[in-house]
Fold DUF4064 domain-containing protein.
Amino acid sequence: MKRTAEKVLTWIGFGFNILVFFGCILFTLLLTTSKEEFSKALMEENAFSLNEAGTIADIYTFMSMVGLVLTAIYFILCILAAVWIGKKNKAAGIILIVIGALSFISPNWIAGVLWLIAGIMLLVRKPKAYHSNLANDYNYNNDYTRSENRDQNDSGYERNLGENTSKKVDEDPYKY
């Protein structure tokens, strides 16, 4: 079964994850290099004291570091799940659902929605079962059972359909 939709959703989410990763790197670098300026800007509005402004700057720096680490983890798990699509669908689906749900606590929620959809599709979609057309099977079976060299023409068709098709024409009183 082709899993093109799941792969596309996963890689689009991966692209958004890369953008958020570089955004987190930029935000972290800006906060760590200009922490004093950020604190002064908060104090100029007379909304915060010196200690409060420093604490808020530390919180922003810590949250940007956490976002950076989380997006790096999503980066690795997304590549792992994308490689497993088509080989280990259940494992890839579970990984995508987990990182999709966890990405709602980070700034990566767009990729999280895409990963949730892809993970659910991986777990829910099943390969199409063989649905035979009874009229075509009946005609094929009649032609097949009338052949003189049955063992030479055996293509495995009867073994795949089961015992009901292995009856001969003479044994079945309901054949026309």
User: Anything to note?
Assistant: The chain has a mean pLDDT of 77. The two ends are 38 Å apart (CA to CA). Residues 50-84 form the longest helix (35 residues).
